[in-house]
Amino acid sequence: MRKIILIGRSETGKTTLRQALNGTVLDYQKTQYIGHEAVVIDTPGEYAETVDLARALGLYTYEADVVGLLLNATEQYSLYPPACTASCNRPVIGIITKIDSPDANVERAERWLRLAGCKEIFPVSAYTGQGIWQILEYLREPGDVLPFKDEAEANRPRCVVSDKFGEVGRTGSAGRRSWSEMANRRQAARAERLRQIRESAHGSD
Asked: Which numeric CATH code is attached to 4-158?
């Protein structure tokens, strides 16, 4: 797989997208530093929002094969100036996140990303799974084994343990819980994910 670096302001959904691409449960974690996991380089939003820290993003793009500029579909403005991709010597794609939101304006976000210079645009929802397979296919190289067996599995709703407000319950609303309760829920969700993978493997035999 080609390695991708995810760049965008805070609350754009970079870490959640990373978890969705890796096939793991969605468990909100505030990214505090630039981190590598599998084929994804995850970056804190503050790096894109602060001039001094933004220089570090330029350096980290050299460790990636593809640069992904993320824009939340509910954004009222774009962080990216026109033609900013011209300064990058890597392929730059646009990723529109949170397209499942009732307030999403995908067309506006796409216009802004194209204005920035992105020719490939991927609308995605980490929660519903829409668009995840398309990004994986873009990054895929010959011989790669993806975390999903096919597009239908990749583009299905994810197991969500928590969002930024706490644990997501059966109704989809978030409420604060203790760390021990959260840990138990994470463990149960991972066990459920492993069970689904095993059942899927047996079903393909």
From this structure: 3.40.50.300
